Amino acid sequence: MIAARAGISTRTFFNYFPSKEDAALGLQPLHVPDHAAAAFREGDGDLFERAVRLTMEVIRTAVPDDGLGERRSELIRTLPELRGRLKHFSTTAGELIEPVLIEELTRRTLIDEDVHAQDIRDAATALRMVAGTVVRFAFVKNPSAWSGTTTESLTSATALFREVIQNPS
User: Fold this and answer.
1) What's the pLDDT tens digit per position in 37-64?
2) Total-model pTM
3) HSE-CB of 77 using CA atoms within 13 angstroms
4) What value, to the nearest 5°, has the Cα angle with vertex 145 and ends 143 and 149?
5) Which of 4, 38, 115, 149, CA to CA, is 20 to 30 A from 104?
């Protein structure tokens, strides 16, 4: 229906957008920005917090800075099926940041010869999965978290997860 209204074939439509949800939200392909990877490597804060921030920075690459953030938030609030894209994007973002996490974990464990490469990969996978969950939680609590200027919901979600993990009772 979208392609027909635009006067193009569905094949042409899907050359530009992987899904109709991406088209409706105006989403772009994810990537790890160089500045975000550098900030992760050089950043303050613990590894968990830095991984959450890196995940969010990667997800934000999908959202153009076009002034339509409020409209996107409204669409997501009124059309819950669009929320599924966040899960997809957080999973994809995690896959993109995993090599950065492996690099950091390898750097940290070079002095410990008893650490095996598989342990590092497993730790990176676990870290990226938890970071993605924190980002999705922040988004559920505040759909405008996609905005490049909104950080309080991400900070709050990170603190809550840290508290629940450290003090589960």
Assistant:
1) 999 999 888 899 999 999 999 988 988 7
2) 0.82
3) 11
4) 140
5) 149
